[in-house]
Amino acid sequence: MSTPLPARPPAAVADYPPQASFPDEDRDAVARHLSRARALAATDLWSEFRWRCLVSPLDRQQVTGVQHDGLVPPTRLFDALYSIGQNAVSAYALDTADGIIVIDALNGPEEARDILVPNMERLELDPRRIRYVIVTHGHGDHYGGAKYLQDRYGARVVAAEADWALMNGPQPGPFAALAPPRRDIVAKDGDGVTLGGTTVRLHVTPGHTPGTLSLIFPVTDKGKRHWAGLMGGSGGGRDSASIRRQIASLERWEKLTAAAGVDVLLTNHPAHNDATEKQVLLRYAMPGDANPFVIGADRYRRFTRMLGECSRVQLARMGEGEE
Ligand SMILES: [Zn+2]
User: Could you name the domain of life of the organism this protein comes from (predicted)?
Assistant: First the structure.
């Protein structure tokens, strides 16, 4: 969701939108956590830091401009992992010998029918082979098409208990009329979804929503094994209580991903990690070019800690310290 944008160019300076301001901010705490986040990001996570700590909280106009609904070519990311979403929100297909696991389902049945499924077909993935749809969290832009995939292909839908409740409650604005999937598989922390010998490990990481699921699963890049980490709510919390839960979840996520050896950064909005742009590089890759989604374990860890510092910046901007 976004606030309506002014006409471009605005008629007068008086109509220019101001940058967001935070009258109650604890300036010293903002400075401290921003500095830590920036140091963690160094130069190789500048883009992710810029988005999460600076652009997203301060500049709605830029967020809406970058994270607009738009078609992008579906792209093979790893040997059996495909990007099948659109510019504003991600969806993935993980192919196995026994069927396909879809991760997130875009904004609604129309996008599932007219974007997600055609993207799969362009990649020669048969949508009738979808066995599971994992919903990373219960916001309409992620579960929107889940009921369509459930009804049409008999896919089993997986979400955490708290977000089944969220999906079945009233939805804001553009999602008010959206039908949720029928309640199906309830994921508990640490559960796995296994298909064709591949297990996607699910961790309940509350913060962005009460039942956000974060995923760890193996991928291969031209046969070489890597571990993908997809934090299901990297956009953060909305009030101080949920931001505090998010900080705790990120501390746990750092340990879980380090233990698993996660070295691949996936997100559920392309803008969070420049995924749309990285996909261009992949589609035009020369033999031997590095896969831009493989960032290495150290950099993944700094990414997670950076998200935690940006959440602390968010709290400090509300005038609330976490310590
Ligand atoms: Zn969300």
Answer: Bacteria
Question: Average pLDDT of 44-66?
Answer: 95
User: What whole-number distance in Å separates Cα of residue 323 and Cα of residue 312?
Assistant: 10
d(CA 246, CA 167): 20
Which residue range(s) make up the domain with 184?
Answer: 23-317
Ion ligand 1, residue ranges at CB < 5 A: 139
Q: Which residues pair with 132 in a beta bridge?
A: 101, 156
Give the torsion through C-alpha atoms of 302, 307, 309, 314, to 10 deg: 170
- 10 within a domain of the structure (yes/no): no
Residue 14 belongs to some domain of the structure: no
Cβ(279)–Cβ(73) below 8 Å: yes
Length of the chain as a residue count: 323
CA–centroid distance, 288 to ligand 1, in Å, is 36
- Whether 18 is in a domain gets the answer no
pLDDT at 265 over 60: yes
Query: How far is the centre of ligand 1, averaged over its atoms, from the C-alpha of 141 (Å)?
Result: 7
Mean of per-residue pLDDT scores for the chain: 95
- Residue 184 phi/psi, 5° resolution? -135, -110
Residue 8 covered by a domain: no
pLDDT band per the 50, 70, 90 thresholds, residue 252: very high
pLDDT tens sequence across 202-211: 999 999 999 9
Q: Tell me the two tokens of residue 100.
A: 């396909």
Closest CA relative to residue 30, chosen from 42, 17, 20: 20
Secondary structure (3-state) at 195: strand
Query: What CATH number should be reported for the domain holding residue 289?
Result: 3.60.15.10
For 121, phi and psi rounded to 5 degrees?
-65, -35
**Angstrom distance (rounded) from CA 106 to CA 10:** 32
How many domains, the chain?
Answer: 1
* Cα of 189 from ligand 1 centre, angstroms: 19
